[in-house]
From TrEMBL:
Function: Has an important function as a repair enzyme for proteins that have been inactivated by oxidation. Catalyzes the reversible oxidation-reduction of methionine sulfoxide in proteins to methionine.
Catalysis: reaction(s): L-methionyl-[protein] + [thioredoxin]-disulfide + H2O = L-methionyl-(S)-S-oxide-[protein] + [thioredoxin]-dithiol; [thioredoxin]-disulfide + L-methionine + H2O = L-methionine (S)-S-oxide + [thioredoxin]-dithiol
Protein name per Swiss-Prot or TrEMBL: Peptide methionine sulfoxide reductase MsrA
Entry's EC annotation: 1.8.4.11
Pfam entry (one): PMSR
Active site residues per record: C12
Peptide methionine sulphoxide reductase MsrA domain: residues covered: 5-155
Family note: Belongs to the MsrA Met sulfoxide reductase family.
Species this protein is from: Qipengyuania qiaonensis
Keyword list, A-Z: Oxidoreductase
Enzyme class: oxidoreductase
Length: 178
């Protein structure tokens, strides 16, 4: 197993986490905050938009089952990377579309954005490539969809369409039990 990590932000981290957990080769998804200027931010602080952080996920995956290129393509294809600082009704810089490449991943991040743009003429991605320190979100945000999210009206409205998009557009990357 060649374990790697990737960090992406595409709106609400609950949504991105739910999608990534169903992808083959993914062994872990951690929700958190990245790309801001404040050390150890809280959810409440990030939600104000004043810390500069994005809600993101750190994905641990086996690159013998899914490559970084494929994982980035799933990420780009399961949110709307053409929306600036928002995803649907979630508005603010904390919901921006961004890739936070780890060492040696920047070229692949740029290539993923280019592929999306080539496949969607007229809908250019506003996805940024950024750096930053990773801060895990509070425990109650982890694996949210599997628990509290199933009773949260927001999640019930937003996550199932993203999961259906994953199943329709990226079926070959789905875990068998997803």
């Amino acid at each position: 197993m060649a374990e790697q990590q990737a960090i992406v932000a595409g709106g609400c981290f609950w949504c991105t986490e739910a999608v990534m957990k169903d992808v083959i080769g993914v062994s872990g998804v951690e929700s958190g905050y990245i790309g801001g200027h404040q050390a150890s931010p809280t959810y409440k602080e990030v939600c104000t938009g004043n810390t500069g952080h994005a809600e993101g996920v750190r994905v641990t995956f086996d690159d013998e089952q899914i490559t970084l290129e494929q994982l980035y393509d799933v990420f780009m294809g399961t949110h709307d990377p053409s929306q600036l600082n928002r995803q649907g009704n979630d508005v603010g810089t904390q919901y921006r579309s961004a890739i936070f490449p780890l060492e040696g991943q920047e070229d692949e991040a740029r290539a993923a954005i280019d592929r999306w743009n080539d496949e969607h003429p007229g809908q250019e991605a506003v996805t940024t490539i950024e750096g930053g320190e990773w801060y895990p979100a509070e425990d109650y945000h982890q694996e949210y969809w599997e628990g509290e999210g199933q009773r949260n009206p927001y999640c019930l409205a937003v996550i199932p369409p993203k999961l259906m998009k994953l199943r329709k557009s990226f079926q070959k990357y789905l875990k068998e039990d997803a």
